[in-house]
Design a protein that fits this description.
This protein is α+β, with helices and mostly antiparallel strands and 477 residues long. It contains twelve helices and 21 strands. A hairpin with a 2-residue loop joins strand 12 and strand 13.
Length: 477
């Protein structure tokens, strides 16, 4: 049996990745000693005997590594925990490459839920986000091959690839009756995780910091961004962790420690025996300006730790939608053959002791984005078109897109009426397309392009605009 060599890290990421980060954590200190095993020598001997029996007697030659890896995968699967996983040496090596300053892929965080590879969140600005992948999308096929029975690491390796290559995904989206298909061009995914800007509203300088994940340099990036904003003189600050799938536990602790005081713990770590270890900051001084957090269904794990710390320890409001709901901490272990084990070993609790696992964190001000933010990609084959008097889900999506692009058809229920024909013609004329009133493949492509422009426009971001209003109100009070 393979001996354990080294504890790697505490992990609070949401799962495996294909072009995102999955293994996150601290330096491995404070790791509890292993409890005595309940497995007897006879149990171990039974496993070894079965291995040798299969190896010698199976009707065809057995791949020893495949057999051993299968046994390990079986133990992991028996836990029924989507956040615990095992990667063989080859998969672990390929994964390690994604922890550099940049990597090539589509840019999304995934986990396995009931055996199905499920999107936690696409990285902001990534090919996955631009293509329209969303949290909770279930990936069923990759390049025509089913993911049924595949491990998370196997699925990740199938989806990853070199810049410029295209991967075809078949996706089931909750609430959508038909399967969605995506052709996503892989690209270089930079791992800069902090972006900042200033908004001037009602004579006030409102700072804005977006954190897309928590990697090795995120806390330093955050410090630099916050210093720059404070030097410019901000009256308030928005922290945006929407679509943030998680990251290093110690990095989120460092960032939270800059924003809240030691009056309450930032987070509490609970072991299997119910023993809690509260983690405090040394910070004694509250910021001289109010803070507002921005959250959504793609905010998971480490970003939920930050959101909970802002709200419960800092007393700051949260704007947006309910978060993903991951309240466990994983520990990474490197084995002697360079394979990797990620095992759930702890719960994390909010400053007030709440376990948000599978529940999420509710915003204090609930706001959904406009309908067109959630429109599914259009599937319009060459030679076919969506036309007058048709009625289906594709037309409903197209109507939402038209509305978002500024050509409101007057309805979004999926019926292609005269109003929709008029809106389509106006859109086609404005974008140099053949004015037919029918949604053909070129019209669908341009419509998705214009919709993406609308989604990226801060003026259309209702959650951000609400956060700005809430922040102004906090400043005045």
């Amino acid at each position: 049996m393979v001996a354990l060599l080294m504890i790697v890290s505490f992990l609070v990421g949401a799962g495996g990745t294909y072009g995102a980060m999955a293994w996150f954590g601290g330096d491995g200190r404070d790791v509890p000693a292993a409890a005595p095993s309940k497995a007897t020598d006879a149990d171990i001997q039974k496993i070894e005997s079965l291995y040798h029996f299969i190896d010698k007697n199976y009707y065809k030659k057995v791949d020893d590594d495949k057999l051993l890896n299968g046994a390990i995968q079986g133990m992991i699967e028996a836990l029924n925990d989507p956040f615990s996983s095992y990667m063989d040496p080859k998969s672990a090596s390929a994964f390690t490459e994604s922890l550099s300053s940049s990597f090539q892929g589509i840019g999304a965080e995934v986990q396995q839920v009931n055996g199905i590879v499920t999107v936690v969140s696409p990285i902001k600005g990534s090919p996955a986000e631009k293509a329209g992948l969303r949290p909770h999308d279930q990936i069923l096929k990759v390049d025509g091959k089913s993911l049924e029975g595949k491990s998370l690491s196997e699925a990740v390796s199938m989806i990853k690839g070199k810049k410029g290559t295209v991967v075809h995904l078949v996706v089931k989206r909750p609430g959508v009756s038909h399967l969605l298909e995506f052709n996503i061009t892989r690209d270089e995914i930079p791992l800069a995780t902090v972006h900042s800007k200033m908004f001037d509203k009602s004579g006030k300088h409102l700072g804005y910091i977006e954190i897309t994940s928590f990697n090795e340099k995120t806390d330093k990036e955050f410090d630099a961004a916050l210093y720059k904003l404070e030097k410019q003189g901000i009256d308030g600050l928005i922290i945006d962790v929407r679509g943030n799938p998680g990251g290093y536990l110690d990095k989120v602790q460092n960032i939270a420690g800059r924003l809240v005081t030691s009056a309450k713990p930032i987070v509490q770590i609970e072991d299997r025996n119910g023993k809690k270890r509260p983690i405090y900051t040394d910070n004694k001084r509250k910021k001289p300006y109010p803070i507002v957090g921005l959250i959504d269904g793609g905010s998971a794990s480490a970003s939920e730790i930050l959101a909970a710390a802002l709200h419960e320890a800092g007393g700051y409001p949260l704007v947006g939608e309910k978060t993903f709901g991951k309240g466990t901490v994983q520990q990474g272990v490197t084995l002697s053959d360079k394979s990797e084990l990620k095992l759930t070993m702890f719960k994390w609790l909010t400053p007030d002791g709440h376990w948000i696992h599978k529940k999420g964190i509710q915003p204090t001000v609930k706001v959904k984005e406009p309908d067109y933010f959630y429109a599914a990609p259009l599937v319009v084959d060459k030679g076919k078109a969506l036309t007058f008097d048709m009625n289906n889900a594709e037309i409903a999506n197209a109507q939402k897109m038209l509305k978002g692009a500024g050509f409101n058809p007057g309805r979004t229920d999926g019926y292609f009426d005269e109003g929709t024909v008029t809106a389509v013609k106006a859109f086609q004329k404005a974008n140099g397309l053949s004015v037919t009133g029918k949604i053909d493949a070129p019209t669908a492509t341009k419509l998705e392009e214009k919709l993406m422009d609308a989604v990226k426009n801060p003026k259309n971001d209702l959650q951000l605009q609400t956060a700005l209003r809430v922040l102004l109100k906090e400043i005045k009070s």
